């Protein structure tokens, strides 16, 4: 086992908010344990979850010093939970993994190699979408090689499951998420881009994003309202620019839904 010191070179701090995820949590944790790159710490932030997640976490805390656990005083949402995890993080690299998503075994090994090879400070790998029960949706989301602030305003392609940030090159304050119940991750990526951090996409599928029923991101009308709030209240865009960006966002989101729908329909007919 590595001796972990504060902001240790090469250590990856993985931040995972925990709230009503007991159905998927063990699979998520096991995907971290299966990593071929073993120099990590997994920071599990309990957002006062009412389910059995804390009990499921306990055996890992007792058996592996790389696991860390903190419970918030009150339910506060993913932004506060991730910021609490960031405060505890001792690694040079910050990675995000929601408690219902999965990493493929070589995720960290391949992504850190990519970052060191290219000098990238802010990256996201390709990821595939799966149903809540793990059934493949046969949909892979491919990252653009680069993306600008203006382009990301009209897109939601970057997901926490694929993101790794090198804090030797990115000020940690830029990773502090705004206190939003929804869209805090998108706001953070925009925050970094707006402050001159360059993004590089890694075109290698290294993670799985689970589509969970009734999740905050599943309701499209709510997602649209959330995005409008992000434009107007966080990014402080004009009404006209907000409307223009929302049209682009809706177009890109529709392309994703139509493509996934066709694949599911095709899969169903082939049975």
Return the structural class. Answer: alpha/beta
SSE run: EHEHEHEEHEEHEHEHH
Return Rg in Å. Answer: 18 Å
Helix fraction, binned, reads 25-40%
Question: What best-fitting shape do the alpha-carbon axes yield?
Answer: globular
Average pLDDT, all residues: 89
Compute the number of strand runs.
9
Distance between the termini: 48 Å
Strand content: 15-25%
Largest sheet: 9 strands, mixed
How large is the count of helical segments? Answer: 8
Show the helix and strand layout.
Elements: E1 8-18, H1 22-33, E2 40-46, H2 53-63, E3 67-71, H3 78-88, E4 91-96, E5 102-103, H4 107-118, E6 122-131, E7 136-141, H5 149-152, E8 163-166, H6 184-194, E9 199-211, H7 220-234, H8 239-269
Parallel strand pairs: 1-2, 1-4, 2-3, 6-9
Antiparallel strand pairs: 4-8, 5-9, 6-7, 6-8
Helix pairs in contact: 7-8
């Amino acid at each position: 086992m590595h001796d972990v010191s504060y902001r240790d070179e090469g250590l990856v701090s993985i931040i995972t908010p925990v709230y009503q995820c007991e159905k998927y949590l063990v699979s998520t944790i096991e995907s971290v344990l299966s990593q071929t790159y073993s120099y990590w710490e997994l920071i599990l932030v309990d957002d006062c979850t009412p389910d059995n997640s804390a009990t499921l976490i306990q055996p890992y805390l007792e058996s592996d010093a790389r696991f860390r656990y903190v419970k918030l005083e009150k339910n506060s949402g993913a932004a506060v939970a991730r910021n609490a995890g960031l405060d505890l993080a001792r690694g040079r690299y910050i990675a995000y993994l929601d408690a219902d998503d999965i990493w493929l075994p070589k995720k960290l090994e391949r992504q850190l190699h990519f970052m060191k090879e290219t000098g990238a400070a802010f990256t996201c790998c390709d990821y595939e979408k799966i149903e809540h029960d793990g059934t493949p949706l046969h949909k892979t989301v491919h990252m653009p090689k680069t993306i600008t602030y203006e382009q990301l305003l009209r897109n939601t392609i970057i997901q926490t499951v694929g993101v790794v940030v090198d804090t030797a090159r990115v000020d940690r304050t830029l990773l502090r998420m705004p206190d939003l119940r929804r869209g805090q991750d998108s706001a953070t990526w925009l925050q970094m881009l707006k402050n001159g951090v360059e993004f590089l996409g890694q075109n290698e599928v290294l993670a799985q994003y689970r589509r969970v029923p009734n999740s905050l991101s599943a309701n499209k009308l709510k997602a649209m309202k959330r995005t409008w709030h992000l434009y107007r209240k966080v990014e402080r865009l004009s009404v006209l620019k907000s409307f223009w960006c929302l049209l682009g966002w809706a177009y890109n989101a529709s392309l994703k839904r139509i493509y996934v729908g066709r694949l599911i329909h095709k899969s169903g007919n082939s049975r």
